[in-house]
């Protein structure tokens, strides 16, 4: 696949994980691609925690399930019905999880390029996540970003030091297939937005 094929093939995977092993060489290439991402002040403020332990993943999955229930309780009517059909994670089905963290102190106290934009470090971590996701897709693997969690819970579960934020819990592994249409579109949660609606010339336009 060329780069554009990978970008458009990429999906947020939930139900398609097979649980088959991830080859060590493929995992090394994926993490190397993530670590090659650009970062503010060349700080490389990310770390990658590889979570394979079944009990740790079960504990996290119980937490995710509780947070799903919390969100579901805020919905009613058609939104509640649509959400009930949506699978939100592949924590137990995927081969392993990769938790990506952010260390704001790395490269400090004077981080070149961050003095005016405090969030530039978080943006850098997101670039590493995107690299990881695209590399995994190019390897024929799937990735699912789990967002139903509380940061303090994950920090305690994985022994993450104070001051370091867990930015993403990513499920990773071989998949039976990648859906041609994103899940949230297929289930009627939200339709895609056309490019023309997102492009502005010189100034913001309504």
From TrEMBL:
Q: Name one Pfam family in it.
A: Nitroreductase
The domain of life for this entry's organism is Bacteria
Which residue numbers delimit the Nitroreductase domain?
7-173
Q: Which InterPro entries does the record match to this protein?
A: BluB, Nitroreductase, Nitroreductase-like, Nitroreductase/BluB
UniProtKB keywords: Flavoprotein, FMN, Oxidoreductase
Q: What is this protein called?
A: 5,6-dimethylbenzimidazole synthase
What species does this protein belong to? Micromonospora coerulea
Upper classification of the source organism reads: Bacteria, Bacillati, Actinomycetota, Actinomycetes, Micromonosporales
Gene of this entry: bluB
